[in-house]
Write a structure and sequence with these properties.
The chain has eight helices and ten strands. It is an alpha/beta fold. The strands form two sheets. A six-stranded parallel β-sheet has the order 2-1-3-4-5-10, with helices on both faces. A four-stranded mixed β-sheet has the order 7-6-8-9, with helices on one face. Strand 8 and strand 9 form a beta hairpin. Helix 1 packs across helix 7 and helix 5 runs parallel beside helix 6.
Length: about 230
């Protein structure tokens, strides 16, 4: 499979390494080579089976418009753009392209979201107060993280609560920690996921690209991760 990776940050580099380990041909474009999506011409994009984006909220929309307009397949691990999801979904459908997006491509995080939903459902009528705390590296651009926002949406959907407090920390080179706390009068429950490295994200993104390579349509990783 021919894979184009957009973004040469810490996660993007690791995605490229993992894709190569999987036996794929990999080409990487950094921000300087692809300013304003200028490198993503139709002839260039059609030379790849799947495009994987780990760039920034500022760059990703232009990248998606350029890639999806060609009818290509695209996995997006960048967060901070979901206010444009309706538009990007529509573009993918019109062009019969493939789009798979996710706030986190770690299988462990996906399991945490499932556990959080069940935990919230069981505790919603017992007077527990829910809160979320997350920690990431200092260079992470979005705060709170997309994963923390997704976790909050899961809790809100299961409990009917309107708001879930989120505390975000940016410390050193932390790969990522997310905690969901349910505090009651008599006790406290904590659900925690801690990443020891970014490899779990990279593995999930490459497996997602392999899955998407034979499909069209728009998919949320948390809805399809068990198939991947």
């Amino acid at each position: 499979m021919r894979v184009l990776v957009l973004g040469h940050g810490k996660t993007g580099k690791l995605v490229a390494e993992v894709a190569a380990e999987h036996g794929h041909s990999v080409h990487v474009l950094d921000a300087k080579e692809n300013a304003n999506a200028s490198a993503l011409t139709a002839p260039f994009v059609t030379g790849f089976d799947v495009v994987i984006d780990f760039t920034s909220p500022e760059a990703v929309i232009q990248n998606m418009r350029a890639v999806l307009a060609t009818g290509a397949k695209m996995v997006v691990g960048t967060t901070g753009w979901y206010d444009k999801l309706y538009d990007m979904r529509g573009l993918a459908e019109r062009k019969q392209a493939g789009l798979l997006y996710g706030t986190n491509f770690s299988i462990g995080v996906q399991v945490m979201l499932q556990l959080a939903r069940k935990m919230s459902e069981l505790l919603k009528s017992s007077g527990y107060a829910f809160s979320i705390e997350e920690t990431h590296h200092v260079t992470k651009l979005d705060s709170p993280s997309g994963t923390a926002l997704t976790l909050a949406d899961v809790v809100k959907g299961a409990t009917g609560l309107q708001e879930i407090p989120i505390t975000a920390h940016r410390v050193g080179d932390a790969a990522g920690v997310h905690e969901l706390e349910a505090k009651g009068v008599a006790d406290k429950l904590v659900l925690r996921h801690e990443s020891h490295s970014r490899r779990g994200f990279a593995e999930g993104a490459v497996r997602a690209a392999e899955w998407l390579s034979t499909r069209t349509g728009c998919y949320d990783f948390q809805d399809v991760y068990t198939q991947i």
